[in-house]
Amino acid sequence: MAKKTSLAAKAREAGMPYGTVHHRVKKLGWSEKRALTTPVRHRNTPGQVEDATFEPSPTPDPSAENTTNPDTLRNVVIGLCLVGLIVAWVTYG
């Protein structure tokens, strides 16, 4: 008679967290094979950075001309006014 291996042992053997495998099988209804062979998607947790490279943005040259397009500023102001009107209309009817 073949010995039955627990789900925890299979997860350990696959190098996966047991909670992930258990959730996939019991809650999502996946087969054990699928749960153990589908890669785990790692999410960044606060204070943890994975595979990230930081490159600071260049410091702006204070002697450079102001290249802000006046039309861009006007469009931003118009957009903010429209948002304010929509919020007021939705809030107060």
Q: Would you report the number of β strands?
A: 0
The stretches of 5 or more residues where confidence is low (pLDDT under 50) are none
Average predicted local confidence, pLDDT: 80
Radius of gyration: 27 Å
CA-CA gap between termini: 74 Å
As a percent range, the share of strand residues is under 5%
Largest sheet: none
**H/E series:** HHHH
Question: Strand pairing plus helix content: what structural class?
Answer: mainly alpha
Number of helices: 4
* Helix share, percent: 40-55%
Shape descriptor reads elongated
Would you write up a description of this structure?
With 93 residues, this protein is mainly α. It has a domain at 1-40. Helix content is 51%, strand content 0%. The chain contains four helices and no strands. It has helices at 7-14, 18-27, 32-37, 70-92. The longest helix has 23 residues, at 70-92. The radius of gyration is 27 Å and the shape is elongated. The N and C termini lie far apart (74 Å). The model has no long low-confidence stretch (mean pLDDT 80).
Topology diagram in text:
Elements: H1 7-14, H2 18-27, H3 32-37, H4 70-92
Brief rundown of the structure:
By secondary structure, the chain is an all-alpha fold.
Protein traits:
single chain; mainly alpha
